[in-house]
């Protein structure tokens, strides 16, 4: 049998042997030629593939080469039943183990270089030939299609005699593909920048196309006879199946609607706010653009940003949108807002996907309710029983994986999902493919430490280099951070002399393009112009008195405490016959936290009634960034200035006919910012706060500025307050150590981030990073490591997730994973490092853990099972802290999870 015929029997996809049936022997496997043509067809038809600037014949040829390494005997032997004896003879185990992606790179770069010459030959002039290093950039991109670049000891691997044996087959494989695609020679790129962009884009597209092209439901296995004529298979089988697969994946082509004003995009807006008016009329920079909008909470920044995004999309500079938020709660809130408007970005005939992208997206009932089955998103059919089916659309294929969710035409998620596009984690290029061609909209971009700021700068640099535009929103951005992010974007555009920003206006819109940078002062919304009186309170008893007095007037009252332990302690101290505070923090099981969140929205949201609002809420900082709620009076622990201003935005933010307390008063619990203090200025007074915000100098400076100003006057003194509080040049001598330590930590965090982020210039190469699994999310630094505790109750010999105990509908086997996820609490490892399982419950606990994923079962130090038994105060379990000391864990739905030292004896 000649090599061309023999190649039909090399497999690319196969059933696991334990699933094979003799009666199905004809389709035990999918021929390698068929698989690579399936993937190439997907790549050619995927919307946005034209951004690579390649002819479809060139693109198809390159992508089809991605799995050439599967020709190697070391891969073919993985499924003995599918061994291609027609080409390799009798089955043998005696082949060196290797990775097919690395083998593919070697075949393309070294053993089959001559067979690929026609792909690069533009002229007889040798000076116009591609360099071998330039070719390798393309081979790295297509061969590294399993989430990271192919890597091995290249010199040693070349010595494997299998290569010499298989090289003629690989060369014939290439000839078959050249006949299918007949690609013109790839042109020489005018600059290294263009080739570098193609390398990253090609890596992302190959990953994306391979994920879709590997789905058996969309590409059913065929027999070797089906690829006897590879060209016919490509045109008559691969392309039609790819077209249908792309539609069912939720990635079908969509058309952006023309921009016709903000009222068309948001029907509820009759009169645009000042910033909205600016953003629907100002001339945007040509090409990739960065827009920074700084304005007060409630100014309509989000709608202004969406107007800007729509204008960029309508002008052909973007095909979609990804909105990145600091937390899962803010992502949920944004998802709810976009549900009402995202379809207006596109023509009515289009079917754009809207996806929620974060690690717990599948716990959001609204998002899960609109996931269409994998076979439902064709042109004509959408299930009638799906909630809001006519308006909201997302395929299950997109929605089940946070990495794939970024591929949706409109995505909403945590900033972590976007940052992982520039971190050396597996499938970073999949996220890059998701962001490619989209407007990146980042909300609350001030809420980052030095580490995340550096990641954010890297993301903007990368996004600009790939031709993308970005919009950043903030109510409280310092000039230094605004300059850093602007410079990063201009660096990505290859601007040699980056602009120096100078405006101190507020509100402010900054427009950044390749040609120039504009800073546009903006008027404030009239109804947001206000003066909040600020009172520094130096003892907790006075705060308690203020809260009780306001509660007696049936006011809506909130106290934001900086730590969960302080939240619980204050709530317990305030509880009386007449006051039963609502407690809200992050140390509740997820099912209870979501229920509390709904209750808080009901009691204090924009549509809350006067009767419902007569309540006291004691909350951790989750309050400041997640919910659209407001209070008649607000108390807070001292915090950095930007957070104080953000918290003050929850004070009387909604229009109401009548309030029990009309004056806008903010009470800040803080030690007195005297000129002479000792180094324990914060820790003696608020020890938990000192643990959360370790730069006492920053807290002192915030308190000192507010003591002098005595008010937050919006918008007049917002910029002044932010910049003055950030100036730590004049703080008490005793706090200089904290200031210097904080600066040192900031430099260290910046340096660590610079080491961790991907180097765009280095390209998609194995030796520039560790390329770790993205199960661990290295987007944020943890001063104190946390563990995930899964709460459960034991009844006889049965262990049930806490969520299933609370909600019986989660009892079914189908809902088990969801029930365990809804039973999770995150706890600092030093508080709880190990949960104790009674001997008589070990077998039941083991059965319960068996439904967890393999990684969760293996990571016993990261995922703890806490068995709870009832007692007079709620539920109780036992464990050990980070020092190995016994602790008692108490849980109830009023206060959440508490940990106490065990009483010996």
TrEMBL record:
Q: GO:BP terms for this protein?
A: defense response to virus
Q: Does the keyword Hydrolase apply?
A: yes
Q: Which Gene3D superfamilies match?
A: 1.10.3210.30, P-loop containing nucleotide triphosphate hydrolases
Domain HD Cas3-type, chain residue ranges per copy: 25-212
Q: Quote the InterPro entries the UniProt record gives.
A: Cas3-like_dom, CRISPR-assoc_Cas3_HD, CRISPR-assoc_Cas3_HD_sf, DEAD_box_RNA_helicases, Helicase_ATP-bd, Helicase_Cas3_CRISPR-ass_core, P-loop_NTPase
Alphabetically ordered keywords of this record: Antiviral defense, ATP-binding, Helicase, Hydrolase, Metal-binding, Nuclease, Nucleotide-binding
Any Pfam family from its record, for instance, is Cas3_HD
Q: Does the keyword Nucleotide-binding apply?
A: yes
In alphabetical order, the GO MF annotations are: ATP binding; hydrolase activity; metal ion binding; nuclease activity; RNA binding; RNA helicase activity
Q: Which SUPFAM superfamilies match?
A: P-loop containing nucleoside triphosphate hydrolases (SSF52540)
- What protein family does this chain belong to? In the N-terminal section; belongs to the CRISPR-associated nuclease Cas3-HD family.
Which protein is depicted? CRISPR-associated protein Cas3
Source taxonomy: Bacteria, Pseudomonadati, Pseudomonadota, Alphaproteobacteria, Acetobacterales
